[in-house]
Design a protein that fits this description.
Jelly Rolls, single chain, six-stranded mixed sheet
Length: 369
């Protein structure tokens, strides 16, 4: 079968694959969930694939390419973009394989547009389109530790079924000099622009029995939807060997705090606790965290994990037992800061403490004005 598009003629080859169909195309084609697309992208030519979707479907699109600037854009039945990603060559320090995940807003025919932008040469391109409900993903329970191996640019998916309002923390850790990327998504994109996920992941370093541990953690306040976790190794350079990793999902303790209160608590090694207060834009507060057992670190962030202020006692002098945000002003209201919001005071051990020991702490909160 021959198609003519953008002045180019392409021959479509259809090959059966496990779980779907393998397409090599140079024109607009219809695909289904579970299909894999393989083709060669010519410079500055738009390629379009369409599929039938239903409202509420959670779709994960993954692709790899050896191109320099490949743009993938998922469009709804009306033609509006609802999820896009840039991709670079496989093995690139920043990208490797690329993924985007979206919850479809309505029934209808969706389109995936792909273009090798401002390129001088052709690029190989492989893309898979999956519906989460069809993937048979393993469910991870709170406090369960899942150990497995990951190869560079390999992605393993898991699901978590939290209760609405839970503060869910997901941590992926690996032994050795490995940068671990973790994506958490529920309502929308599995990447950095997710609505229910990890917009600001945290990198951390520690050691166990003399081995370097690199960890990547994300937090999200659940809306009650099932969360999809995508664990991936990236930035591994020339190391092509698989690496042992561990995944753990926890419910972070969270409780309200009022002005004038002092709370005594116990922090587990490597864990954190959240205390919430209703704050107004421009309001000034003082937060004081003390501990004789560990080097304290305190920060104030919004319910989406955006940090506004942090103090690590390891930056101070003396016994390093006090971390204080004194007369800390919440930013004035703007497009990013609402007039009224729920804020989190995060109690944790200094990122520079190794090993993490935990212990007793005292937290005091005051509204200054």
């Amino acid at each position: 079968m021959t198609f003519v598009r953008a002045g180019l003629i392409g021959l479509i080859a259809v090959v059966a694959l496990a779980g779907g169909v393998n397409w090599a195309a140079q024109a607009q084609d219809e695909i289904s969930y579970g299909d894999t697309v393989q083709t060669t992208l010519q410079p500055d030519v738009e390629y379009v694939w369409t599929f039938q979707g239903s409202a509420g479907d959670r779709v994960i699109i993954e692709f790899t390419t050896d191109g320099e600037h490949v743009l993938i854009d998922l469009r709804d039945p009306a033609g509006w973009s609802i999820g896009w990603q840039w991709g670079h060559a496989v093995g690139d320090e920043e990208y490797g394989s690329v993924k985007t995940g979206v919850r479809l807003p309505a029934d209808g025919r969706y389109s995936i547009s792909v273009e090798h932008v401002s390129a001088e040469t052709a690029a190989d391109f492989t893309m898979t389109v999956n519906r989460v409900a069809d993937m048979g993903l393993p469910v991870v329970q709170y406090d369960e530790v899942v150990e497995f191996r990951l190869a560079p640019d390999e992605t393993r998916y898991f699901v978590v079924q939290p209760v609405a309002g839970d503060l869910v923390q997901v941590r992926l850790s690996g032994v050795g000099d490995v940068a671990n990327e973790l994506y958490v998504g529920g309502e929308a994109d599995l990447g950095q622009e997710t609505l229910e996920g990890c917009s600001y992941p945290i990198n951390g370093f520690s050691s166990v029995d003399g081995q370097s541990i690199t960890y990547r953690e994300c937090q999200v306040i659940s809306t009650g939807n099932e969360l999809v976790i995508a664990a991936e190794l990236m930035n591994v350079g020339d190391n092509s060997a698989s690496q042992p990793v561990a995944l753990v999902v926890e419910q972070v303790p969270m409780q309200p705090i009022e002005s004038g209160m002092t709370v005594e608590g116990e922090l587990l090694p490597g864990a954190e606790q959240h205390f919430t207060f209703d704050g107004a834009a421009g309001e000034t507060v003082t937060v004081r965290l003390e501990s004789e057992a560990f080097v304290p670190e305190v920060l104030v962030e919004n319910e989406y994990g955006t940090g506004y202020g942090m103090f690590d006692a390891s930056f101070g002098s003396g016994e390093n037992t006090v971390a204080v945000l004194e007369n800390f002003a919440i930013p004035e209201a703007d497009s990013f800061t609402p007039a009224q919001a729920t804020y989190h005071i995060v109690v944790r051990e200094s990122d520079f403490s190794d090993p993490k020991v935990g212990g007793a702490f005292s937290l005091t909160f005051e509204r200054v004005q």
